[in-house]
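Project outcomes to date are best conveyed with an example. Our students and postdoctoral researchers have been running inverse folding experiments weekly, and each run begins with a structure described purely in tokens. The record below, which covers 470 residues, was selected by the lab manager from last quarter's runs and is presented without edits.
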């Protein structure tokens, strides 16, 4: 095999990194996977989406901690049906057994699989969610990370790929390092056209009429009155059509600027990208330490007195308590202890205030983060109470396919650690259309008109980025 060329036409430090990548191609069995981590220039993680216009890609930017962008796949895991959480875990264990790592010094993170789940099995089997499975996770071909003033690029490949196409892997890494260097030097404080759409404009908009929403809420209240459920979270969709496909990278850049207290995420399949700025953590596991939260009860953020009104609202306190209790009940069988405050606090976002109760726990045994995800999803903040009856009602009556909306998205590693959020304030960009989603928790004394207005406030998280009104 002719050795691939690690040209020194890039910066000298990049040339040394590419030399390490070249050497790492040798001595790898065909069925094994090697992940090589190289130093990289500091740039915007969402710029990774620009290196390949279609195909698998992801962005994961929490409010604190490393920001990550990925393209391509060295391995992909998929599962369907009711055992999708366990199946993904089993496939991952087999994959991790084939992985080794090489790093240029003390940089980078342990390898991670990025992906998510549909809201319930089968909910991504309909338009516009083609390509999004019940469960799908990827070991990225290229994973770029930024934390504080450090940055790195990890390259994953099989032994067969190292023998068959070493130059393609090397050229891909070189192109990304160059592009990130340019993006870091030229990153601006706002998208180029000022509206996050890459010059695209909205030419049509379709949203659920208030009267139709009221009918759904009244049907839920009837089910509650009959004792079938205590709470159901109803969702609606706004469909936008653009003059040309929006620029996903610019949308993500603006979301990072306008929602700094949220996790900015994106998952691309084919030419469709599911993205958002979610305020709600589902669960984080680090060793035996578990962090989660209850986030339910909302009001607009327009006036200073709204925080007090939210804290004093009997309806919102009741809705919030349902979430806290179910989260605690789900965790207790796996944990030595579960701690949470007796009273919620107000979590302030740009358009909405939420009641929030942080919850921490210590695991009794080494439960995998996916076990925790399975136990917690869907929380009453996005599903209802009781869980099974609420989901059945949503599946049978809700006039839209939720797909990955309000579902768990995030990452996990070979130690069983991971970070998953609830995919709220989100939408699917597919071609020249954007499908934006928002929901509201309905209990016995919910007012349909007020709940419709609440969903409008939640839609603003993406609509404001696109400079539109809900």
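After processing, the design step wrote out the following sequence:
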């Amino acid at each position: 095999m002719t050795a691939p060329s690690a040209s020194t036409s890039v910066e000298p430090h990049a040339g040394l990194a590419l030399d390490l990548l070249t050497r790492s191609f040798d001595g790898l069995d065909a069925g094994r996977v090697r992940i090589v981590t190289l130093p990289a220039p500091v740039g915007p993680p969402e710029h990774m989406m620009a290196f390949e216009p279609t195909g698998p890609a992801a962005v994961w930017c929490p409010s604190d901690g490393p920001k990550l962008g990925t393209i391509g796949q060295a391995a992909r895991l998929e599962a369907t049906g009711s055992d999708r959480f366990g199946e993904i875990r089993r496939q991952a264990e087999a994959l991790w057994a084939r992985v080794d790592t090489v790093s240029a010094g003390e940089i980078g993170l342990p390898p991670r699989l990025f992906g998510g789940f549909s809201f319930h099995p089968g909910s991504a089997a309909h338009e516009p969610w083609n390509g999004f499975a019940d469960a799908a996770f990827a070991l990225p071909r290229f994973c770029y990370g930024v934390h504080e003033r450090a940055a790195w690029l990890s390259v994953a490949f099989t032994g067969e790929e190292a023998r068959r196409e070493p130059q393609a892997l090397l050229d891909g890494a070189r192109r990304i390092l160059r592009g990130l260097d340019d993006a870091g030097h030229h990153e601006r404080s706002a998208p180029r056209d000022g509206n996050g759409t890459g010059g695209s404009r909205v030419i049509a908009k379709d949203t659920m009429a208030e009267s139709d929403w009221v009918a759904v809420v009244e049907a839920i209240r009837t089910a509650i009155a009959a004792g079938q459920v205590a709470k159901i979270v109803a969702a609606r969709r706004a469909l936008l059509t653009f003059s040309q496909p929006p620029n996903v990278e610019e949308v993500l850049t603006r979301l990072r600027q306008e929602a700094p207290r949220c996790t900015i995420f994106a998952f691309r399949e084919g030419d469709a990208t599911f993205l958002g700025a979610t305020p709600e953590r589902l669960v984080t596991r680090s060793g035996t330490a578990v962090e989660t939260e209850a986030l339910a009860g909302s009001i607009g953020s327009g006036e200073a007195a709204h925080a007090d009104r939210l804290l004093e609202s009997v309806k919102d306190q009741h809705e919030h308590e349902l979430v806290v209790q179910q989260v605690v009940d789900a965790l207790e069988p796996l944990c030595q202890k579960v701690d949470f405050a007796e009273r919620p606090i107000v979590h302030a976002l740009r358009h909405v205030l939420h009641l929030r109760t942080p919850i921490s726990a210590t695991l009794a045994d080494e439960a995998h983060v996916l076990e925790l995800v399975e136990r917690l999803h869907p929380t009453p903040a996005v599903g209802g109470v009781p869980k099974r009856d609420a989901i059945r009602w949503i599946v049978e009556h809700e006039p839209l396919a939720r797909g990955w909306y309000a579902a768990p998205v995030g990452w996990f590693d070979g130690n069983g650690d991971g970070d998953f959020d609830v995919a709220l304030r989100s939408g699917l960009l597919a071609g020249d259309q954007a499908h934006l989603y928002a929901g509201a928790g309905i209990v016995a004394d919910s007012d349909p008109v007020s709940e419709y207005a609440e969903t409008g406030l939640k839609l603003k998280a993406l609509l404001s980025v696109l400079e539109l009104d809900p």
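The two ends are 59 Å apart (CA to CA). Residues 119 and 407 are 5 Å apart (CA to CA). The training component of this project remains on track.
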